[in-house]
Structures are given as structure tokens and as C-alpha cells.
Amino acid sequence: MDTLTTPQVINSEYLLKHWQGHRNLTRKVIDAFPENHFFEFTIGGMRTAAQLTAEILAMGAPALKSIVDRSEEPFSENRFNLETKAEYLTKWDESTAAINANWEELSAQDFHETFNLFGLYNFPVIQNIQYFIDNEIHHRGQMFVYLRALGITPPFFWER
Amino acid sequence: MDTLTTPQVINSEYLLKHWQGHRNLTRKVIDAFPENHFFEFTIGGMRTAAQLTAEILAMGAPALKSIVDRSEEPFSENRFNLETKAEYLTKWDESTAAINANWEELSAQDFHETFNLFGLYNFPVIQNIQYFIDNEIHHRGQMFVYLRALGITPPFFWER
Question: Keywords assigned by UniProt (chains A, B) (predicted)?
Fold first, then answer.
């Protein structure tokens, strides 16, 4: 089956809206953490919410830019050196704008081209993008548990 | 923009493969729980892994069948009355086959039709299907935390 000409299930515009909807929810989850717990609270030896967010930030906007530029720059989880929750939220908003801008550069054909993201993940672009989204949902689900363990009610999952 | 004729980013076959890949990982996570903890362990007043799995099972295959049949049957989280982890896994595998079979009945046009799932969620079919997948990733992320809190190493996130 020719993936470029068969009828459309998800198009580029819809996928961006879907991702940014999830990113909007993740922002609310980050913001729900008290400052100290964002950097310190953990369960079962897992990473803190700040560390999980650093990974999401290092993956989303920079990865999309790498895809657009076809640059195999290595992954760097701590590329931003953020030190307060406010700095994380500011970087989050910058990333939102960067993702929107770089998304415009992607043609439908680009999604199906194989690209070696970070010099490590040699897959069709669509698979790498879905990985960013799924990875964010996964780690945000973990942050929901951290919030619940702290006695804080997280936002509704369907609130985007 | 006409969503049915613009170039394809995600097609039906790919989306099914993506969902079943996630379902395969969720099955491994369920299987990683000791029997008692699957039904009893919880953090911060959240639902147990068994209750989260019951929701995923009640949503996936039955919802897809409702979509195919255009039946607005209400959602029932405990529709299966499963009592052991083995029963959950058996129902999981039955659901895998049912999803594959019902997926064949969906045309590309169907994904864009609005349908009132469970008599409650009146959205385009593609949005409801993405909700099942995202909801599963979200709750499975929470089960990862439960496993870590129990000192059990979960499967790799990218293992599908």
C-alpha cells in the first residue's frame, strides 16, 4: 500500500494539534508541583519530575529541529541547565513556539523519510515523532503518581 | 484542507500496528506484577493495577466494536469480572484478536465520522481511538511507578 496516496487517517496539522494538546497538559502537571518536590521527590529510585521534564524538553523541540535540519547532533538530556520551575516553564513555552515553527518545515513526504535522529535512532521521521509524544505521555503519567503521592490532585487527563 | 486527500502522515494499517505495539508492552507490564500486588498495591489513593487494566480492557476492544457497530452502549469498567491475573491476560489476548478483526471493518472515511461513543464522547472516531491509546500509555506509565516502588524492574518502554 502506498502510504502517501491512500486515504488520510492522520494528517500533519492534526498531529501537531494533538502533540501541542498533550504538551499543554504536561505544562499544567509541571506547574502543579511545589518547587522543592519538583526537584527532589521520587518513588522507587526513579528520576525526579524535573529530570523527567528535562528529558522531554531535550527530546521535543531540539529533536524536531534536528529532523528539519537533518542534523545528527547527539542527544543531551541536560542541554538547558534549568534551575527553577519557572525556568522550566519558560523553556517549555519557548519550545512550544519552536515546535510550531519547525513543524511548518515538514512536508508530508518528510514524515516517511528515514533519518538517524541523534545519530542513534534510524527510523522514519513519523516513528520518531510519535516516540516523543508517547514518551511524554508515559513520563507525565508517572508525574501524576508523584502528585497523588504528595496529596496533590493532578489536572484532568482529558484537559488539553 | 481536505483531510481525506492531502498526503498521508499516518494510515490505518500503521495506526493499528502502533496500538498493538503499545498493547504488547502493556501486557508485559501486567505480567510483571506479582498476583497480590496486581490487585492490592496502590500509591496515593490511586486505583490498583488491576483496576487500571480493567479500564483499559473495557475501553479498547469493546469501544472499537461499538464504533464499528455504531452502537452507543454505555461504558462499563467492570464488564468482564476478572478475578486472577491469568484471567486478565487471557482477556487481553482475546481483545488483541478482536481489535484486529474489527479494525478491518473501519474505512479511512470512518475515522473522520463523528460518533457518540458510549453515548458520551461525541467526537470523530480518530479522536476516540487516539484517546484509547494515550489513556493506555498514561496508565501504564503509572503501573511502571508501582513496579518500581515494589522493587521490580519494568520492561523497556521501547520494547513493543
Answer: Metal-binding
Q: Is residue A44 domain-resident?
A: yes
Please tell me the distance from the alpha carbon of residue B61 to that of residue B26, in angstroms, as a whole number: 14
Q: What is the CATH number of the domain that holds B70?
A: 1.20.120.450
What range does the domain containing A31 cover? 12-149
Task: Determine, for residues B145 and A140 on separate chains, whether the beta-carbon distance falls below 8 Å.
Answer: no
Whether residue B155 is contained in a domain is answered as no
Q: Cα–chain-centroid distance for residue B153?
A: 22
pLDDT tens per residue across span A73-120: 999 888 889 999 999 999 999 999 999 999 999 998 899 999 999 999
Q: Which residue has the cell 494510515?
A: B11
Q: Do the domain assignments include residue A156?
A: no
pLDDT above 50: residue A2: no
The pLDDT tens digits of the residues spanning B41-71 come to 999 999 999 999 999 999 999 999 999 999 9
Domain assignment present for residue A136? The answer is yes
The structural domain count of chain A equals 1
Residue A103 near residue B105 (C-beta atoms within 8 A) = no
The per-residue pLDDT for A7 is 55
Interatomic CA distance for residues A132 and B60, integer angstroms: 23
Residues B9/A108, Cβ–Cβ less than 8 Å: yes
pLDDT exceeds cutoff 50 at B4: no
A139 known ligand binder: yes
As for the ipTM of the complex, it is: 0.93
Chain A with chain B: Cβ pairs closer than 8 A = 130
